[in-house]
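Running this now, will post back.
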Amino acid sequence: MSVITYFSTHNHNLSTPSRILAMEYLIKNEVSATTFIDAIYFVEEKQKIVLFHVLDMMVEHHINYLDNYLDFYLEKALKETHESTKRCVSRTLYHQLKNNKSRYNRKQKQQIILAMFDWIILPSAVATRVNAIHVLYFLVEEEEWIKEQLIALIEQNMQLHEASFVSRGKKILKLLHKRKS
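Update: finished.
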């Protein structure tokens, strides 16, 4: 059975056991990231969201899963508009950069930086924005302007009084202020 057939006929859901089952399928069948991403973009939208959650979990537990396919992943993932999917993408980037800031090359980092700023500035769910500020914190040394812009956006977004954003925002601001200008 092909990967596309498997994920088209096995309707996984967002429950942890279902995502683990899907992740185990990927591992057992040694499914490459490109094959899985192709399957994600083949299935219907509702299942696509579930599979992005599976990919997020896969990267969290197997941090190198996407390493040979970073361009392919970014080309598709950074264009996502569904909030649940954007949250997964920003979380995946968070885990990867937390583990190894040099995982991405300069061009890829530039793509990530622009997308994360867009996701903070344009209407996005709070979880996406929280992850995006942390991703940008990991990349703050890439460009001189990032620190100043990130501080301004965090301060602006903290005025919305969303508890999770305020909590992470305070943490990131503290870390940014500790960094040399």
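Residues 45-61 form the longest helix (17 residues). More later if anyone needs it.
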